[in-house]
Amino acid sequence: MLSGGDECGSRRGRVQSALRPINWYCLYQINGILPRQPGDHVMTVTHNDDAISPQEAAALVDLILDRYHAVQRAEVPALIRLARQVQAQHPDAPRELVPLLERMRVNLDAHMQKEEDGLFPAMRLAEPVSAVAVEIMRDEHDDHAKHLRDLQRLTNDHTPPTHASLEWRQLCAGTRKLADDLVEHIRLENEVLFPRFGA
Questions:
Q1: For the chain, N or C: smaller number of CB within 10 Å?
Q2: Residue 159, Cβ neighbours under 10 Å: how many?
Q3: How many CB atoms lie within 10 A of CB 15?
Q4: How far is CA 64 from CA 61, 143, 167, in A?
Q5: CA–CA dist 126, 11 (Å, integer)
Q6: Helix (H, G, I), strand (E, B), or coil: what is residue 68?
Q7: With b meaning 16 or more CB within 10 Å and e meaning fewer, what string describes 53-79?
Q8: At the top level of its lineage, which domain of life is listed (predicted)?
Q9: Residues whose CB falls within 8 Å of the CB of residue 60, separated by 6 or more in sequence, listed in order
Q10: Which helix (H) or strand (E) holds 152?
Q11: Could you read off the pLDDT of 146-194 as tens digits, one per residue?
């Protein structure tokens, strides 16, 4: 893994190791064991000495946009609709799930829009990026991880009860996919894209 220094490289190496095999709850576990280091808060415009080409940068950004941003913008609203349907059918369905998914939708939309309007255009051209902006994105990733923990709790680890309807089973399958995708989405940005820009 590329990094801007030995300490940072060691930390990111531990994170990368902990993410193998990737599971949906690993992100907030890692956040608990590996707190931010002072060197992670450098408020400068930075670029990795091992420069990424515009072609490589554009390909990586496009992968994130197509595989994660577009998919999550479509799937989270669909999960909200399905969760409402399940709540209407099952009095014992978790009442807090719809509000949680709605918060996730709002936060994810705002976060992804910031990346698309700010960081990604510069990254696509392999231009230097602000370490402050990247740190804000990392902090928001931590917020997404907290939502994943709540999602685990409310869905009983994405496991429907034995009496669950088809819709409830589909809902749990959908929340599990969302969690898996979001962890990989965050990992790709935190551990692959951002380090290529020394951030």
A1: N
A2: 12
A3: 19
A4: 5, 19, 29
A5: 24
A6: helix
A7: eeeebbebbeebbeebbeebeebbeeb
A8: Bacteria
A9: 52, 123, 192, 193, 196
A10: helix 131-154
A11: 999 999 999 999 999 999 999 999 999 999 999 999 999 999 999 999 9
Antiparallel, parallel or unpaired: β 129-130 and 45-46: antiparallel
State residue 175's pLDDT score: 98
Phi, psi of 45 (to 5 degrees): -90, 130
Residue 36: half-sphere exposure toward Cβ, Cα within 13 Å: 13
For residue 171 the two structure tokens come to 């809902």
Tokens of 93: 């369905």
Provide the 3-class DSSP secondary structure of residue 130.
strand
Q: Which residues are CB-neighbours of 97 under 8 A, at least 6 positions away?
A: 83, 87, 154, 155
CA-CA distances (angstroms) from residue 194 to 104, 173, 187? 22, 30, 10
199: pLDDT strictly greater than 80: no
